[in-house]
Automatic annotation (TrEMBL):
Pfam families: PepSY_TM
Residue ranges that the Swiss-Prot or TrEMBL entry lists as coiled coil: none
Keywords for this protein: Membrane, Transmembrane, Transmembrane helix
Record field: transmembrane: 22-46, 185-206, 232-254, 408-433, 459-487
Keyword Hydrolase among record annotations: no
Name used for this protein in its record: Peptidase
InterPro entries documented for this protein: PepSY-ass_TM (IPR005625)
Superkingdom of the source species: Bacteria
C-alpha cells in the first residue's frame, strides 16, 4: 500500500470550507420554508387591498343617506347561520363604503389552544340591512396565506411540551405542559436554523485576506455564470440579513411553544400594571383568531365584569356600545365582543362588552375598552402603557413585523425582505446548478481529514459556544442539533473505520469559498 502526504489547507480556508458546508445544508433544509414564508408574507402584508379586490361584493357597499340600526344588522346576520352557532364579535364599518361584519363560531369548533377555531364571517349592508354573503375566515387567498405562514398552527396533531411558565409561576400558569401543534413546532425549529443560515452567510461574505479579490457590495455581471450569481446572492443576503433577524425573532414570539414561554418570562421579569377591577373567568385571548384581533401583550388579560344589577335588567344594545366606542375615539375597524355571563361559587358574574381596536396595529393603537353591559360605563381601559417593558418591546417588534408600526416605511422594508428572500433562494439554486459537476449532484460531502486537522480550535470553540447558547434559548433547535451531531458522529465513525481508509490521496487546489 502506498500513501502520499496530505496537504493541509490554511486555517482560514479550512474554516471557510466547513462554514460553507454548514450554510449549504441549512439552506437546503430551510429554502422551502423560506419560500412559503416570503410568498405568504407578501399576501398578508397587502391583505387589505387584495381582500377588497377579490371580495369586493362582501366588503364594499354603496353609501346611503342613513344607516340601519346596528342591532337590526346583527339580527339579519343571525338569520343566515346555524341556530347553534355562537355570535362572537360585531365589527361596525370602518369607512363610509364598508360593510358590517358579524362573526360566528360553530358550536363544534375546537377551541384554543388545541386549535384555532375557524370563524364564519357574515357581511351586511349597513345602509339597507341587506345580507351580502358570508365566508370562512380561513378561506380564500388571504385565509390560506395566514394558514401557510403559521404552518397551520395548532390545527391538526399536537404534542405536550414542558411549560417554562409553570416552573416560574405555577399559580399563574397551572398547566405543566403546553399543547403544541406539530406544524407550529416545525416552524419554530426552522426559524432558528434560519438564524444559523443568516449568521453563516454573513461569515462567508465578511472580507478577509484569503479572498481579497472578492467584491463586497458589487456584482460582477460580466463574469457571468456562478460568479455573477454568487455576488448577487451574497449582496442580497447581506442587505436583508439584519431585517431577516428582526423578523425571525419577532415572529418567534408568536410560536405556540417558544412564544408562550417568552410570554411567561416577560410577565415575570417586567410585569404589567394590574387593573383594579372585578373580572370574569374568561381571558381576552379566548377571542384570538390567528392573532388577527387580539394584541400579543393582551392575550392573558382578563375580561372584566359588569356591576351586579337587578334581575331582568336589560343589556345595552350594540348601537349604544358602538356610539360609546366612537365617542372614546376607538380606531375605526374595532370589534365588539358581547358579554359572557358565568356563575362562580353560586353567584352570577356578569361580563362586560369588550371593544378591541383592529389588529394589526401600532403599539400606540393597542387598546381594549371594557364597558358595563347594563350602564355603558367604562369598567377598564387597557392600553400598551400598562404593559411591562418587555411586553411593549415585543409588541413593537410584532408591529414592525406586520408592517404597521411606521406605516408605509415598514411596509416597504417588509416587502423588500420578502422579495430578497425569494431572490436569495433563486440565486442559491442557480449557484448550485452552475457549480455541480456534470452528471452529479454537487452536494458537499463531509469535511476531509486535512480540513478537519487545519480547523483552529478557537473556531471550533466559538461555534460550539454559539450552538449551546442557541440550544438553550431555543430548545427545539437544541434538540435538533443533538440529532444532527449524533448523525454526523455515526457518519464520521463509518468514514474513519480502518476498512474504509483511502490508501492514496492527492491534493488539489480548491476555491476557499465554494459558495
Amino acid at each position: 500500500m502506498t500513501t502520499t502526504e496530505i496537504s493541509k489547507p490554511p486555517a482560514d480556508t479550512a474554516v471557510l470550507r466547513r462554514i460553507w458546508r454548514l450554510h449549504f445544508w441549512v439552506g437546503l433544509f430551510a429554502a422551502p420554508v423560506l419560500v412559503v414564508l416570503a410568498c405568504s408574507g407578501l399576501v398578508i402584508l397587502y391583505s387589505q387591498p387584495l381582500d377588497t379586490l377579490l371580495n369586493g361584493h362582501l366588503l364594499v357597499v354603496e353609501p346611503g343617506p342613513q344607516t340601519v340600526p346596528l342591532d337590526e344588522q346583527v339580527a339579519v346576520a343571525k338569520q343566515h347561520v346555524g341556530a347553534t352557532d355562537t355570535l362572537e364579535a360585531v365589527t361596525p364599518p370602518d369607512a363610509q363604503d364598508s360593510s358590517t361584519r358579524v362573526d360566528f363560531v360553530a358550536a363544534d369548533a375546537p377551541g384554543y389552544p388545541q386549535a384555532e377555531a375557524d370563524v364564519i364571517q357574515v357581511y351586511v349592508d349597513p345602509y339597507t340591512g341587506a345580507y351580502l354573503g358570508q365566508r370562512s375566515q380561513l378561506s380564500g387567498l388571504v385565509g390560506w396565506a395566514n394558514q401557510l405562514h403559521r404552518m397551520f398552527g395548532n390545527d391538526g396533531p399536537h404534542i405536550q411540551l414542558p411549560s417554562l411558565g409553570h416552573l416560574i409561576n405555577p399559580s399563574a400558569y397551572p398547566q405543566s405542559t403546553i399543547p403544541v401543534g406539530i406544524g407550529n413546532l416545525w416552524m419554530e425549529l426552522t426559524a432558528t436554523w434560519i438564524l444559523v443560515l443568516l449568521a453563516s452567510g454573513i461569515y462567508l461574505w465578511w472580507p478577509r485576506a484569503v479572498e481579497a479579490a472578492k467584491p463586497l457590495v458589487t456584482v460582477r455581471w460580466r463574469r457571468g455564470g456562478r460568479i455573477r450569481w454568487r455576488d448577487l446572492h451574497a449582496l442580497t443576503g447581506v442587505v436583508i440579513a439584519v431585517i431577516g433577524v428582526c423578523y425571525i425573532l419577532s415572529g418567534m414570539t408568536w410560536t405556540r411553544y417558544w412564544g408562550e414561554n417568552w410570554r411567561a418570562v416577560t410577565a415575570t421579569v417586567t410585569p404589567s400594571t394590574e387593573i383594579d377591577a372585578p373580572s370574569t373567568p374568561a381571558k381576552l385571548g379566548d377571542y384570538d383568531r390567528l392573532g388577527r384581533r387580539i394584541a400579543w401583550a393582551a392575550v392573558d388579560d382578563p375580561v372584566y365584569a359588569s356591576q351586579p344589577h337587578a334581575a331582568g335588567a336589560a343589556r345595552m344594545s350594540y348601537a349604544d356600545i358602538d356610539r360609546i366606542a366612537k365617542d372614546e375615539h376607538m380606531v375605526p375597524g374595532y370589534s365588539i365582543f358581547p358579554p359572557s355571563d358565568s356563575t362562580q361559587d353560586g353567584a352570577m358574574v356578569y361580563g362586560s362588552y369588550t371593544v378591541v381596536n383592529h389588529w394589526p396595529q401600532r403599539v400606540s393603537e393597542q387598546r381594549t375598552l371594557y364597558l358595563d353591559q347594563f350602564s355603558g360605563l367604562t369598567v377598564a381601559n387597557a392600553t400598551a402603557a400598562q404593559d411591562g417593558a418587555l411586553s411593549r418591546l415585543t409588541s413593537f417588534g410584532i408591529a414592525m413585523h406586520m408592517g404597521n408600526q411606521l406605516g408605509w416605511l415598514t411596509r416597504i422594508s417588509a416587502t423588500v425582505a420578502c422579495l430578497g428572500v425569494l431572490l436569495s433562494v433563486l440565486t442559491g439554486l442557480l449557484m448550485w446548478w452552475k457549480r455541480r459537476p456534470s452528471g452529479r449532484s454537487g452536494l458537499p460531502g463531509p469535511a476531509s481529514a486535512p480540513t478537519r486537522a487545519s480547523t483552529p480550535k478557537r473556531a471550533m470553540v466559538t461555534v460550539a459556544v454559539v450552538a449551546v447558547v442557541l440550544g438553550v434559548l431555543f430548545p427545539a433547535f437544541g434538540l435538533s442539533l443533538v440529532v444532527v451531531l449524533v448523525a454526523e458522529g455515526i457518519i464520521a465513525a463509518r468514514r474513519d473505520h480502518p476498512s474504509r481508509v483511502i490508501s492514496t490521496t492527492t491534493s488539489r487546489s480548491v476555491d476557499p469559498s465554494p459558495e
